[in-house]
UniProtKB/TrEMBL annotation:
It comes from Equus przewalskii. SUPFAM superfamilies: Calcium ATPase, transduction domain A, Calcium ATPase, transmembrane domain M, HAD-like, Metal cation-transporting ATPase, ATP-binding domain N. NCBIfam families: ATPase-Plipid, ATPase_P-type. InterPro entries: ATPase_P-typ_cyto_dom_N (IPR023299), ATPase_P-typ_P_site (IPR018303), ATPase_P-typ_TM_dom_sf (IPR023298), ATPase_P-typ_transduc_dom_A_sf (IPR008250), HAD-like_sf (IPR036412), HAD_sf (IPR023214), P-type_ATPase_IV (IPR006539), P-type_ATPase_N (IPR032631). Residues 452-477 are annotated as: Disordered. The chain crosses the membrane at residues 276-295, 324-344, 350-369, 876-898, 904-924, 954-974, 980-1001, 1008-1028, 1034-1060. Residues 842-1069 form the P-type ATPase C-terminal domain. This is Phospholipid-transporting ATPase. It is an enzyme of class 7 (translocase). Its cofactor is Mg(2+). It is a multi-pass membrane protein. Residues 452-471 have a biased composition (Polar residues).
Length: 1077
C-alpha cells in the first residue's frame, strides 16, 4: 500500500518534516495490512496536532486523503457513563432525530440539466415546485412548536406543574388565582435570459435583495433568440439550454445554448451575464427567459438560512439560577419531612411543603422581566437622539449590553455607496480635486489639435491612421498622456447611459437613435459598480462624455461637441479571481484596435511594462483610504485580433474547465501593456462612522466586516473607516484551494502579531473545512477581521462559528436582503433602513436609520437594560426567598406543620399592589447618565463579564433573604402577645416595610416615579388594613405597641445592610461611582 502513495521530493529545511509525513504513510511497510478506519484516524490525528509552524510542502496528495483526518485539536472524547452524563444523551437524541429527518426528507442529488425550449417532455431532470416557504410554523406544528419554545425554560414548566397541582383537593393550599397569571416585477425563478423588449438586446436588473449591491446590473440576452423576428418563434425553433448543477455561488454560471435546426447548428456560451436570478427585479423593459432552477434550487433560496428562536443570555442565566432554587426547594422540603419523622402520608406532606415553599421561585419573576423588556423597548423608540429606531422583538433588549463581536456589512452600512473621484497619477505628475481644471484644459487642447491635424490630413487626402508599433518611441507630452488616460477611463468600463422618456414619446421610439436626447440633464449612468459610475462621471466633468452605449458600440462626446464612435469587439468583466476587467474596441474613424484594461495593482503590476512608481503611489493612495485602479492599454493589429477571437470563441464553448481556458486565452494578450495612469476613488462613509467604530473598540467590542465586495474595495473601506488603524498591519490571506495551501497560509498568519486579517470567502471555506479550530483561534485574536466575497450563507456561518467557538454574544448589522441570514443567525440582529429597502430591517430585532445610532443603542440602552434586568430579577427572587424563609421558620417552630403562614389575599397582595410598583420601578434606575456612558465606553467592558448577575451576586441575595426572613419571623414570634393573629400582623407589616426599604437601598439614581411608587404602595397597604379583618386585629394595629414592635424588627433587618453598603462604597467603590463623583 505504501508503494502506491506518491511521495514528492522536498527541498531544504522542509525535508525533515516531510520525511516524518512520508514515514507515516509508509509505516505499515510493503504488503502490510491497511490499518482500520479508527486506527487511521488515531494515527492521523498526530498529523493534525502537529504545530502549524511546520512546513507543508509534502501536502501534494489527493484531497481525498484528508477527508478521513479528524479536525484539528479536538479534545479526547469522554467514554462511558461520564460521556453520557456530560452531554452524550443530548448527542444521541440529536443523532436519532437527524436520522429520522434524513429518512423522511431525503435530498436528491443536484445535477446539471438540459432544458428544451417548447418541449418540456424532453427534459429528463425534474424541477422541484417553484414555491418558497419562509414561514416558521404551519397548521400542524404551530401549537407543539409554541409550547416547546415556552416550556423548554424550567421556570415556565415549574409554574405549570405547580398550577395544575391545585386541582387536586389534597394538595390545595391556597386560592387557584395565586398560581395562574397571564404570561417593479420580481423574477420568480432562476432563468437564462432569452429575449427583451429593449432594442440593444440587454436590460438592467436590481440585485439589492440578493447580493446587497444597489447598482443596477447589465444582463445580455442570448443573441440567437434575440435576433428572432417575432416572440412566437421561440416555440418553433429546436433549441435547448445546458446548465450546470445548482450551486451557491451567485457570481458565476456556466452553460451553453444550442439550436439544432439551423445549418450549421448554433452554439453559444452562457455566462453570468446571461442569467436572471430569482429575487432580482427587472429595472428596464420586459424580459423572457427559460427556467433552469426552481424552488429550493434557486440561488436565493440556497443562500438563505432558516431563522432561529433567539433567547437572551440573561434569560439563560436566570434559568440556571431557577434550577438551583428548585434544588434548594426540594432539599428544604425533604428536610422538613425528615424532621417530621416520615409519619403518615409523608409523600403528600412532601408535596405540600413543595407548594408552601414554592415562592422560592416566584411566578412574578417572568412577569416582571417581560414587562421590563417592554419598557426598555419603549424607551429605545422614544429616544430623540436615535430617531426612527424600531424595536421588533421584546425578548432580548438585554443582549445589547452583552455583545463582544459586531459583524457588519460594508455597502450601505458603513458606506453611503457614493463614490467621488479624488486622484489621477501619471507617474511624473499627480492631479487632485483642486487641479482638475488642468486636466480639462489638457483634454480640450488635445482634441482641438487632433481635429486641426485631421482637417489638414483630409485636405491632403492622407488617411488619419497612426504609425504602427514598429515606429520609434517618442516621449509623449503631458497633454497627450492626460488625453490617453482620460480616453482609456472613458472607454474601459461597463457603464451604460440611460435617458428618461420625454413627454409624448412612446417606448418604441424612445431608443431610436434619431430620437435620442443627449442632454446632460436627462442622462443618468447605470453600472454594476459605483466605482465605474464615478469614473465615467469624472471623465464627463473634464470634457469627455459617454453619451450612448449598446452591446456593440460606444459613443463619446468631445469638449468640442464632436461624437466619437467606437465598436466594442470584446468585453472581459471583472471577477474576483482576475481582479481586473478589459475591453477591446475599434475606433470607427481610424480603424485602430486597442485593448484597454484596468484592475487592482496586485493584478496589474505584472502585466504592465516596468516602472518605478506604481507600487509606491498605490501604497500612498491606500493609506489615504482611496480605492485604486491601474489603467493600461495595448495596440493590436487586425491579424492579432482575429487570431485571438478564434481562440477565445473556442474556449467559451467549452463545458469543462471553461473558466481556466478562457483565462488562458485572455492572458495571452496581457503582455507588456503600456501603463497609462493610476486612479483614486473615495467611497463616502456614513456619518460619524469613524468615531462610532472607535467607541465600539474602546468598549471592548471586536468588529468584523463581512462583505460581498471584492478584496481591494473591502480593504480600502476598512482603512478609511478606521476599522483598521493607520498603524496596524494588514495580513491578506492568499487564495487557497487545498489543505496544504491552507496549512502554509495559516503558518504565515500565525507569525504575524497584532495585525488585521483580510480573507476571501473561497479561502475561508477551505480553511473551515480542514482547520476550523485554528482559523477561529487566530482570527479571534485579531483586532479586526475583513471577509470579502462572502455569500449570505457564509456570513451566517461565520456568525455561528464565533458563537460555537467563543461562547460570546454576537451582533450582526446590515441593510440588504443578503444580510438577512447573518442578522437572523446572530444573538442580536440590527437592520438599517437604507437604499436597499426594508428587508434587513424587517428581519432584524432592532431597526435603526443610521450606523452611528448603534453607539447609543449599545452604550446607553443596552448597558442600562442589562443592569436593570439583572437588578430586577435578583430582587424579585429575593422577594420570594424572604417569604419562603419566614415560612420555613414558622413551620419549624410549630412542629413542622405544612400549614401556610399567610393565606388568601395577603399572598396575592404581597406580590402585586403592596410591592409591585416599587420593585418594577427599578427599570428606571441608572448608575451613570447617558452622556457619561457615551463619553466612557470602557464602562461597557464590565458588562461582558456578567458580573451584574452571577452565582456570586445571587448567593449574596440569598444570604440577605435568609437573614432578613429569619429576623422578621423570629422577631415577630418573640414579640407577639397572646394571640397568633398578632404574629401575622407584625411580621407581614414588617415584611412590606422591609421590601420598600430594600428597593430604596438598591436604587442608584432616584426618579420621581420611584418616589411615587414607594408612597403609593405604602398608602395602598395602610388603606387596606381597614378591610383585612380576617387576618389582622384592627384594634391591635392601631396601638403604639404594634408600631414600635414593627419598627424595631424592620430596623434590625435593614440597618446592617445600609451600613455595609456605605462601607463598600467607601472602601471599594464601583467604577461608575468614580465618574459620578
Amino acid at each position: 500500500m505504501a508503494d502506491q502513495i506518491p511521495l514528492y521530493p522536498v527541498r531544504g529545511a522542509a525535508a525533515v518534516a516531510s520525511r516524518k509525513r512520508a514515514a507515516y504513510y509508509s509505516a505499515a511497510g510493503p504488503g502490510a495490512e491497511r490499518p482500520g478506519r479508527f486506527q487511521l484516524e488515531d494515527e492521523s490525528a498526530h498529523l493534525d496536532e502537529m504545530p502549524l509552524m511546520m512546513s507543508e510542502e509534502g501536502f501534494e496528495n489527493d484531497e481525498s486523503d484528508y477527508h478521513t483526518l479528524p479536525r484539528a485539536r479536538i479534545s479526547q472524547r469522554k467514554r462511558g457513563l461520564e460521556w453520557f452524563v456530560c452531554g452524550g444523551w443530548k448527542f444521541l437524541c440529536t443523532s436519532c432525530c437527524d436520522w429520522l429527518i434524513n429518512i423522511c426528507q431525503r435530498k436528491r442529488e443536484l445535477k446539471a440539466r438540459t432544458v428544451w425550449l417548447g418541449y418540456p417532455e424532453k427534459c429528463e431532470e425534474k424541477h422541484p415546485r417553484n414555491s418558497i416557504k419562509n414561514q416558521k410554523y404551519n397548521v400542524f406544528t404551530f401549537i407543539p412548536g409554541v409550547l416547546y419554545e415556552q416550556f423548554k425554560f424550567f421556570l415556565n414548566l415549574y409554574f405549570l406543574i405547580v398550577s395544575c397541582s391545585q386541582f387536586v383537593p389534597a394538595l390545595k393550599i391556597g386560592y387557584l388565582y395565586t398560581y395562574w397569571a397571564p404570561l417593479n416585477q420580481r423574477i420568480p425563478s432562476d432563468m437564462v435570459f432569452l429575449r427583451t423588449s429593449e432594442k440593444a438586446g440587454s436590460c438592467f436588473i436590481r440585485t439589492d435583495q440578493l447580493d446587497g449591491e444597489t447598482d443596477w446590473k447589465l444582463k445580455v440576452a442570448v443573441s440567437c433568440t434575440q435576433r428572432l423576428p417575432a416572440l412566437g418563434d421561440l416555440f418553433s425553433i429546436n433549441a435547448y439550454v445546458y446548465a450546470q448543477k445548482p450551486q451557491l455561488d451567485i457570481h458565476s454560471f456556466e452553460g451553453t445554448f444550442t439550436r439544432e435546426d439551423s445549418d450549421p447548428p448554433v452554439h453559444e456560451s452562457l455566462s453570468i451575464e446571461n442569467t436572471l436570478w430569482a429575487s432580482t427585479i427587472v429595472a428596464s423593459g420586459t424580459v423572457i427567459g427559460v427556467v433552469i432552477y426552481t424552488g429550493k434550487e434557486t440561488r436565493s433560496v440556497m443562500n438563505t438560512s432558516n431563522p432561529k428562536n433567539k433567547v437572551g443570555l440573561l434569560d439563560l442565566e436566570l434559568n440556571q439560577l431557577t434550577k438551583a432554587l428548585f434544588l434548594a426547594l426540594v432539599a428544604l422540603s425533604l428536610v422538613m419531612v425528615t424532621l417530621q419523622g416520615f409519619v403518615g402520608p409523608w409523600y403528600r406532606n412532601l408535596f405540600r411543603f413543595l407548594l408552601l415553599f414554592s415562592y422560592i421561585i416566584p411566578i412574578s419573576l417572568r412577569v416582571n422581566l417581560d414587562m421590563g423588556k417592554a419598557a426598555y423597548g419603549w424607551m429605545i423608540m422614544r429616544d430623540e437622539n436615535i430617531p426612527g429606531t424600531v424595536v421588533r422583538t421584546s425578548t432580548i433588549p438585554e443582549e445589547l449590553g452583552r455583545l463582544v463581536y459586531l459583524l457588519t456589512d460594508k455597502t450601505g452600512t458603513l458606506t453611503q455607496n457614493e463614490m467621488i473621484f479624488k486622484r489621477l497619477h501619471l507617474g511624473t505628475v499627480s492631479y487632485g480635486t483642486d487641479t482638475m481644471d488642468e486636466i480639462q484644459s489638457h483634454v480640450m487642447n488635445s482634441y482641438s489639435q487632433m481635429y486641426s491635424q485631421a482637417s489638414g490630413n483630409n485636405a491632403s487626402s492622407t488617411p488619419p491612421r497612426k504609425a504602427q508599433s514598429s515606429a520609434p518611441k517618442v516621449r509623449k507630452s503631458v497633454s497627450s498622456r492626460v488625453h490617453e488616460a482620460v480616453k482609456a477611463i472613458a472607454l474601459c468600463h461597463n457603464v451604460t447611459p440611460v435617458y428618461e422618456a420625454r413627454a409624448g414619446v412612446t417606448g418604441e421610439t424612445e431608443y431610436a437613435e434619431v430620437d435620442q436626447d443627449f442632454s446632460d440633464e436627462n442622462r443618468t449612468y447605470q453600472a454594476s459598480s459605483p466605482d465605474e459610475v464615478a469614473l465615467v462621471q469624472w471623465t464627463e466633468s473634464v470634457g469627455l462624455t459617454l453619451v450612448n452605449r449598446d452591446l456593440t458600440s460606444m459613443q463619446l462626446r468631445t469638449p468640442g461637441g464632436q461624437i466619437l464612435t467606437y465598436c466594442v469587439l470584446q468585453m472581459f468583466p471583472f471577477t474576483s479571481e482576475s481582479k481586473r476587467m478589459g475591453v477591446i474596441v475599434r475606433d470607427e474613424s481610424t480603424a485602430e484596435i486597442t485593448f484597454y484594461m484596468k484592475g487592482a495593482d496586485v493584478a496589474m503590476s505584472t502585466i504592465v511594462q516596468y516602472n518605478d512608481w506604481l507600487e509606491e503611489e498605490c501604497g500612498n493612495m491606500a493609506r489615504e483610504g482611496l480605492r485604486t485602479l491601474v489603467v493600461a492599454k495595448r495596440a493590436l493589429t487586425e491579424e492579432q485580433y482575429q487570431d485571438f477571437e478564434s481562440r477565445y470563441s473556442q474556449a467559451k464553448l467549452s463545458v469543462h474547465d471553461r473558466t481556466l481556458k478562457v483565462a488562458a486565452v485572455v492572458e495571452s494578450l496581457e503582455r507588456e501593456m503600456e501603463l497609462l495612469c493610476l486612479t483614486g476613488v473615495e467611497d463616502q462613509l456614513q456619518a460619524d462612522v469613524r468615531p462610532t467604530l472607535e467607541m465600539l473598540r474602546n468598549a471592548g467590542i471586536k468588529i468584523w466586516m463581512l462583505t460581498g465586495d471584492k478584496l481591494e474595495t473591502a480593504t480600502c473601506i476598512a482603512k478609511s473607516s478606521h476599522l483598521v488603524s493607520r498603524t496596524q498591519d494588514i495580513h491578506t490571506f492568499r487564495p487557497v484551494t487545498s489543505r496544504g495551501e491552507a496549512h502554509l497560509e495559516l503558518n504565515a498568519f500565525r507569525r504575524k502579531h497584532d495585525c488585521a486579517l483580510v480573507i476571501s470567502g473561497d479561502s475561508l471555506e477551505v480553511c473551515l473545512r480542514y482547520y476550523e479550530h485554528e482559523l477561529a483561534e487566530l482570527a479571534c485574536q485579531c483586532p479586526a477581521v475583513v471577509c470579502c466575497r462572502c455569500s449570505p450563507t457564509q456570513k451566517a456561518r461565520i456568525v455561528k462559528l464565533l458563537q460555537q467557538r467563543t461562547g460570546k454574544r454576537t451582533c450582526a448589522i446590515g441593510d440588504g436582503g443578503n444580510d438577512v441570514s447573518m442578522i437572523q443567525a446572530a444573538d442580536c440582529g440590527i437592520g438599517i433602513e437604507g437604499k436597499e429597502g426594508k428587508q434587513a430591517s424587517l428581519a432584524a430585532d432592532f431597526s435603526i436609520t443610521q450606523f452611528k445610532h448603534i453607539g447609543r443603542l449599545l452604550m446607553v440602552h443596552g448597558r442600562s437594560s442589562y443592569k436593570r434586568s439583572a437588578a430586577l430579577g435578583q430582587f424579585v427572587m429575593h422577594r420570594g426567598l424572604i417569604i419562603s424563609t419566614m415560612q420555613a421558620v414558622f413551620s419549624s417552630v410549630f412542629y413542622f406543620a405544612s400549614v401556610p403562614l399567610y393565606q388568601g389575599f395577603l399572598m396575592v397582595g404581597y406580590a402585586t399592589i403592596y410591592t409591585m410598583f416599587p420593585v418594577f420601578s427599578l427599570v428606571l434606575d441608572q448608575d451613570v447618565k447617558p452622556e457619561m456612558a457615551m463619553l466612557y465606553p470602557e464602562l461597557y467592558k464590565d458588562l461582558t463579564k456578567g458580573r451584574s448577575l452571577s452565582f456570586k451576586t445571587f448567593l449574596v441575595w440569598v444570604l440577605i433573604s435568609i437573614y432578613q426572613g429569619g429576623i422578621l419571623m423570629y422577631g415577630a414570634l418573640l414579640l407577639f402577645e397572646s394571640e397568633f393573629v398578632h404574629v401575622v400582623a407584625i411580621s407581614f407589616t414588617a415584611l412590606i416595610l422591609t421590601e420598600l426599604l430594600m428597593v430604596a437601598l438598591t436604587v442608584r439614581t432616584w426618579h420621581w416615579l420611584m418616589v411615587v411608587a414607594e408612597f403609593l404602595s405604602l398608602g395602598c397597604y395602610i388603606a387596606s388594613l381597614a378591610f383585612l379583618n380576617e387576618y389582622f386585629d384592627v384594634a391591635f394595629i392601631t396601638t403604639v405597641t404594634f408600631l414600635w414592635k414593627v419598627s424595631a424588627i424592620t430596623v434590625v433587618s435593614c440597618l446592617p445592610l445600609y451600613v455595609l453598603k456605605y462601607l463598600k462604597r467607601k472602601l471599594s467603590p464601583p467604577s461608575y461611582s468614580k465618574l459620578t463623583s
